[in-house]
Amino acid sequence: MATKRSVGELKESDLKGKRVFVRVDLNVPLDDNLNITDDTRVRAAIPTIKYLMGHGAKVILSTHLGRPKGVTPKYSLKPLVPRLSELLEVKVEIANDCIGEEVEKLVAAIPEGGVLLLENMRFHKEEEKNDPEFAKKLASLADLYVNDAFGTAHKAHASTEGVTKFLKPSVAGFLMQMELDYLVGAISNPKRPFAAIVGGLKVSSKIGVIESLLEKAKSKGVALLLPTDVVIADKFAADANSKAIAKKLADLSGKGVTTIIGGGDSVAAVEKVGLADKMSHISTGGGASLELLEGRTLPGVLALDDATSAAL
């Protein structure tokens, strides 16, 4: 996969006063009272947004939340605003939609360094259908495009792929860049010794990765070990002497080994035992990470400008 242009290449002269459409992945879990139970994805989006704010851009954030069928109040992005505002140290405004006259007025009112959050992209069925007219309406709000939503990069949606046909430059955000560097690097140029632990809640989404690893392992004469659990214990009992694999990975990280954790449940497990910050990289990608490791290309990444393309 070709190296993509990064938001870090854009200077103040490229960004000051410009409206930047930023696709982020703020698809966070909420409890019954609509409180965020894990803000990992919100925190991961902050560096790119702050960079744009710091260079005088007018930031327009877009994301999805859940799988709504049309406008569904429980999937509104309003509960995300307080945490987003707190982390960005600025009052984040929110629109009641992502297209239309009201949204256009709010966009026109964004000050330099200000942030507007558009309402859930998936309230419009045209988003997932990658409808060109819908993508054009989204693109009309902005001057350029940044995709920092690696978690949806495997989907060709209006806000991840469609808008790139109307906005130039279209560049990768810092999180997108980091995910690609770690994951593409891990596969194409792995540091030896190299180990992959494949686990998680949904077996179906891992089959392709396992097949890819099996084929590569076979051609290189590498043995593939199939573990039966993520805990090694001396007996099947609550009081058994046990070791969690996560602790071993954390130890290895400290010895210079590259450790990458991906997939929602695996990330949650590592967070739960307080070892997330000991790993080299925690992938926010889920399905996108898996598809990349399978050797597939990601539409949301392919749509971005190549690093070799002409400057603004």
TrEMBL record:
Pfam families: PGK. One of its GO terms (cellular component) is cytosol. GO terms for molecular function: ADP binding; ATP binding; phosphoglycerate kinase activity. Keywords: ATP-binding, Kinase, Magnesium, Nucleotide-binding, Transferase. Coiled coil: none annotated. InterPro entries: Phosphoglycerate_kinase, Phosphoglycerate_kinase_CS, Phosphoglycerate_kinase_N, Phosphoglycerate_kinase_sf. Its cofactor is Mg(2+). Gene3D superfamilies: Phosphoglycerate kinase, N-terminal domain. It is an enzyme of class 2 (transferase). Its EC number is 2.7.2.3. Belongs to the phosphoglycerate kinase family. Monomer. This is Phosphoglycerate kinase.
